[in-house]
Amino acid sequence: MDSTTEQHIKLSNAISKKKRFHMINDWELYVMLVPGILFFIIFKYIPMWGIVIAFQNYSPYKGITGSEWVGFQHFVTLFHYNGFWLLLRNTMLISFYNLIFFFPVPIVLSLLLNEIRATAFKKFIQTVIYLPHFLSWVVVVGITYMLLGTQGGLINELIKAGGGTEIAFLTTQEWFRGLIVSQSIWKEAGWGTIIFLAALAGVDPQLYEAAIVDGAGRWRQLWHITLPAIRSTILILLILRMGSVLDTGFEHIYLMLNSTVNDVGDVFETYVYREGLIGGKFSYTTAIGLFKSFVGLILIMGANWLTKKFGEEGVY
Amino acid sequence: MLHYKPSIGSRAFDIGNVCILLLFSLITLIPFLYVTATSLAPMKQVLQGGLILWPETIDWGAYHTIFSNTHFVNSLWVSIFITVTGTFVNLLFTTLMAYPLSKKRLKGRGVILFLVVVTMLFNGGLIPTYLVVKNIHLLNTVWSVILPGAISAFNLIIMRNFFMSIPEELEDAARIDGCRNFGVLFRIVLPLSMPALATFTLFYAVGHWNNYFSAVMYINKSDLWPIQVLLRQMIIEGSVEQFQNAALEASAQVLPKSIKMAATIVATVPILIIYPFLQKHFAKGVLLGSVKG
Amino acid sequence: MNNNRKFKTVLYLSMVVAILGGSAIGCAKKDTASSDQPSSTAKADSSKHIKISSMFPLYGDPAQKTEGWKFIEDKFNIDYEPLAIPNNSSDEKEKLAVASGDMADFMVWESFPSADFYNYTEQGAFLALDDYIKNSPNIMKLPKTVWDNVKINGKIYGIPRPRPLTTTAIMVRKDWLDNLGLPVPKTTDDLFKTAVAFTKNDPDKNGKADTFGFAVGENLAFLETVWNAFDTGNGWRVMEDGTLMNSTITPGRKQALTFISDLYKEGAIDKDFAVLKTTQVWDKINNGNAGIYIGNISDYAHFVEDTTKINPNAKFEMIPLVTGPTGKSGVNEQIGFYGLQVIPAKLEKDPEKVKRIISFLDWQMSDEGAMFKDYGLEGVHYTKNADGTLKVNTDKLKAEAIGNLISQNKFDPYLNVSKTAEPEVQKKQHDMFDYDADKGVTNPVISYLAPTQIEKGADLAKLRDEFFVNVVMGKRKIEDFDKFANEWLDNGGRQLTKEVNDWYKANKK
User: Closest approach of chain B CAs to the CA of A100, in angstroms?
Assistant: First the structure.
């Protein structure tokens, strides 16, 4: 370290206590917040009145003021719906599988990429693995069919050539959730590495050099330098993930869903879509969304509290 | 850079690492190969179906259809404008808001962040948002597509997180030299946050470039259509209505599927071109040299 | 960066918004003051220049502002504003337009029957058009069935966009029939044998077992004439005692399902049918895997073209309907229109504008309008040859997308004949439309949306599809059909049947 900087730092530490006290009242910081806060008020909070329609029998033509209020009726309908527990179970299971199997993949990939020293190779891999993110789910599911269909699907052709009997991947319930998660990894894991790579780029290489001098092997470097660098990012993403525990993404599941796998694949989003097709169900579908949001909020609050209890930075 | 003699375990790890990454790349490359190949394959090959990975001969028909569309260039410009301006607006708003929120002692920080998180979960819906956009008179302008998305709560939170990892000492050093808060942000923090900025530039830009739905909902003038809207219009798919009105188009020298694939490629290639420029900011050691600042 | 200036702009914007924001709430009601002209007096002056906007779904490119556009503006003395919405999202946009009060002067509402549409109509969103259209020659040419299907509470709230009532045909690979020495199937038994032969006997003579009988889609799509051959009924079947039974649980349905699951056992139906969407089903025909398809006559043209691209010897033919064990056959009679043109109720205050809109729509439904939609303007986009045929400047026509200026079409039973196909293909389609005309199986309550249908319709459909698909695939037993029927009834079917029968008795014509 440079001595001028050392001096600066010592000086700033001495002054900083006093200065920081003044900085709390630093009006400039609040001014910086104004555009953002205005944005959230105008485009997020003002439209939020739309949520009240979950407590009405809303008709867009009559508007909020003209539609009758029904309190929690729609929520009651939802909980009494005989498919509710199925939807809840499927949604949570798929979400849970995603958490266990999908969530770590971008992290692992970014760590692996971090260990590559040949820059050209690293850039090449980085670019290739995020490509599927740009394809629509229609394309990805279409390719899945080409690979896994019983009539002419490539994998099944290979199985038959090897003397086996074909597997009905797409119409067998046991395969469904695994397929969903695998497709998600295929399509989105690469894109998910970007955030972690950005975090890793901020690590001072001198730390690694110092560690090597101290005799640390690669595992210890990973454990003591690399992982801590992305730990806060992982935690934040994990907490935010809790908020979408009842979200599964609509298009993906909808395209993979068919009448033979409804029992394992029908989720809230596909239910909402079906209900919304014939029309007239603004309030009911909003109520379902509200339910999902509440559950997500409780979980985020819980996860955030837990994180802070362990001394980490939470989301808020 | 220090050099050291790698152990056998270390070398084995490297080899395994390369293999895993290559394998994963191969798997993720296949869909893209398929799309590219199908966009270039001759009609007969496409009709035969199956997982096309290489065109038998190259047929530029699908691309020709897209590029020769009278609205193509216009839509391209609209999209470029929206993406560039939009991303700039995004970065400005997001960094301005993320920076104060990264200061631990800012009063009300927790409340503000909580309210931001709430917006990630609770949404008024299309109709109320549309009414707000309408009442600010943004309808039918490109701003209707840019402003309502000015800040992504998710990006805001992550960016704040990145700002928090910048050592306070560096900022203090700048303050001693006479910088006000805005100066610290723009002259110290942002340059040190290049990986984060590169990341969010990418995220926001891709979001703008791929935008379809809000453009359709908020813009009625077809000369303000971004590229995604135009591309989807060129795809004729599976409905009688399509064939009926598109009777003049349907002399089918180009298959709908080929156009669909070519449209995907056309929409994706610009992003691929931008990425290498952003990639250099993911290089390690960005902080190096700042300490000497 | 000038922070100060930016700050001020933002402050200004926020003040503007705070004021307007308040008015954003509850602003779902229609706006009353949007008409250009002052309220008109009794004697409307038809030479007044007014502004008219029209919203409709767009297929293909938006129209350019060239001669065709000017022609319309001159002819009707209007400033014309066509608002063409990309068709993929047009449904959403239509709902948004009505909900936000941003309706154009007239717009297409596509989804029908629809609970939203019925609600809006009952709440007074749309103008009742009966009086306005009674003197419009082309509009009134629509058949009675279509008007009956579109009326709500006895009134007309929108002008339907006519479509043929019966549009289905059975299509087979004639070259495969010839290769195997098989006759054209006439009964469901014949069809069964044909399908199995297509699967097992290598009809394309390429030595590979890569063919099968029926191309079928998810939820057993593309089997319409089979259902009708077994007399399942179209939606609802008039039973022997005069009451209506839902076609899901009629005895004919059980027989049809048995037939189809037998086909599946033989491999004569695409093993993957349960996951296939429309375009994927079509792929199976185009690449020569499937030999039988039951679908839209209009699709015949592109099948002919695409199958021959791979195999010049492929001969795709439409054949007459097959009869079932009780001698029945038929195609579903449809509602007769796709979407309707509605006018917002607020235009009641502007009868002149409404009159102009109606005459505009009437023209669109005339022969002249039809020519304009397909070929543009004479002398500009096409010229007439001595023998009556047309010389069309397709490049100019395509570039200007004249057809997309208007959204209403003439009543034409042959509307879906492909205008760009070979003449012989067109003739076959033409003949098939004629053939189908009297083969329609009516859904006696096609325009009625029962309350239980709105509430439980999606669930009942899911229950039905699950049972049907799983029975065909052998995952459930056909013997369970009665158990399934009871489940269907218990889950809202009984209530639905009652409501439908009540309506039917009250409205039977």
Answer: 19
